[in-house]
Design goal:
Blueprint lengths: L4 E9 L6 H10 L5 E2 L10 E2 L7 H5 L1 H6 L2 H16 L12 E6 L5 H12 L10 H5 L3 H10 L5 E4 L5 H14 L5 E9 L3 H9 L28 E10 H6 L6 E10 L12 H14 L6 E5 L6 H15 L6 E2 L2 H4 L6 H15 L1 E2 L22 E2 L4 E8 L3 E8 L2
Parallel strand pairs: 4-5, 4-6, 9-10, 9-13
Antiparallel strand pairs: 1-7, 1-8, 2-3, 6-7, 8-14, 11-12, 13-14
Helix pairs in contact: 4-7, 8-14, 11-12
């Protein structure tokens, strides 16, 4: 019999706030946090969803703050808060049995662009010796381990915008196999660089609503025209449920299932009928031991891009038929945090189960005629019980789905 996996702690740093409570309140308000971004001034797309009021030196101390890029700083703060939320004492855990698995979709282009500037100016001596350790994707997990004194498995998953969800699935496997007793799993990303914004704008993936950025991110809405860059971190503490209950930990939810599948279709565009997503959902439900009828709500990938939302809608209809559960999509509020998005969504799915409510989709007004989903709009809706599933899809046709139930 496979071990039940419990979520015992959450840590969040997002445009919605730096605490679980602030994030939940912002989700329930259902208003986009996108705004003009001074760091993107002069670009074709000059707005984003930013993490604000974040003082890394105050949170981490000057030495730790200077040593890590912004995505590393987010991960450190989220990890500390997740551990505290789980009621864990770092002085008493068996460090060799504690792991860290974090998803990062890209390394920090902001650091690289700044350092390449020195090279371009013919000043290689100005390149910081910390440029690589500040920005290599694996350093988020590495710095979390250093900060918390964790000596178990430590690595990074990179499956584009499914990275954070993939990390949680891999962490589940470490617990089921008996390799670890505790795993800090999730993702962190800060890709609001001028290079990233320019690249996505050139691909026509970003919304162009420059005069009304707060209306730009609108998952599944008929007037959607692209996603909004976001940033942040989401980290979950995972343990075997029997061990969590033995230490009287707060079991926030149970991670019941994980599924992954590839489109094998196109480097960027999703399969039009969501083939890989369908397989990932079916695999996750089978792993959870439940059928489509046992799902109470879906936290969709919902990027607000025309092709991705249409493909995801097709996938949901193929899985659930005429009984698609209520659908929410948190990117309408906080934008798209790329490699961290799946982890943040997973935390939000846990919160929805805890609070018995499904948050609304920001800016949703109407759907296209080619699909019909039950989109939660306007205000939170009481859950109808059952499992919550979180869907994450990425470039290269990467698909990852997580299934949670209330504890």
């Amino acid at each position: 019999m496979r071990a039940e996996i419990a979520v015992t702690g959450l840590g969040l740093v997002t445009p919605a706030g730096h605490t679980v409570e602030a994030n939940w309140a912002a989700l329930c308000r259902g208003r986009s946090l996108a705004a003009t971004d001074p760091g993107l001034a002069g670009l074709p797309v000059d707005f984003s969803c930013q993490v604000t009021d974040f003082d890394a030196e105050t949170e981490l101390g000057r030495a730790s703050a200077r040593r890590g890029d912004r995505f590393i700083q987010f991960a450190l703060v989220a990890a500390r808060r997740a551990v505290a939320d789980a009621g864990l004492d770092r002085r008493t855990w068996e460090a060799e049995r504690v792991g860290v698995v974090l998803g990062v979709g890209s390394n920090s282009l902001s650091t690289y662009v700044a350092e390449f500037g020195h090279l371009g100016a013919g000043r290689p001596e100005r390149v910081s010796p910390l440029a690589l350790p500040r920005s290599v994707p694996s350093m988020a997990a590495g710095e979390v381990a250093i900060d918390l004194g964790v000596r178990g498995p430590n690595f990074t998953t990179a499956s584009a915008c499914a990275s954070g969800a993939t990390a949680i699935g891999v962490a589940r496997d470490l617990l089921r196999s008996g390799t670890c007793d505790i795993v800090l799993a999730g993702g962190s990303e800060s890709a609001r660089s001028r290079m990233t914004a320019t690249c996505f704008a050139r691909m026509r993936a970003l919304s162009r609503r420059r005069t009304e950025p707060a209306l730009a991110s609108r998952p599944f809405d008929a007037q959607r025209d692209g996603f909004v860059l976001g940033e942040g971190a989401g980290i979950l503490v995972l343990e075997r449920a029997c061990a969590a209950r033995a230490r009287r930990a707060p079991v926030l939810a149970l991670l019941r299932g994980y599924g992954a599948g590839a489109d094998a279709h196109h480097p960027i565009a999703p399969h039009p009928q969501g083939d890989g997503a369908v397989r990932a959902i079916h695999t996750a439900l089978a792993d959870a031991g439940c059928g489509p009828g046992n799902v109470g709500h879906v936290n969709a990938h919902g990027t607000s891009t025309p092709l991705n939302d249409a493909a995801e809608a097709q996938a949901l209809v193929r899985v659930f038929g005429d009984e698609v559960p209520p659908v929410t999509a948190s990117k309408g509020v906080i934008g798209h945090a790329l490699g961290a998005a799946g982890a943040i969504q997973a935390a939000y799915t846990v919160l929805a189960l805890r609070h018995g409510a499904v948050p609304p989709v920001a800016n949703f007004e109407s759907q296209n005629g080619d699909y019909k989903l039950d989109i939660v709009a306007g205000r939170p809706r009481p859950t109808r019980g059952g499992a919550g599933i979180s869907c994450s899809f990425g470039f290269g046709g990467q698909n990852a789905v997580l299934v949670f139930t209330a504890s």
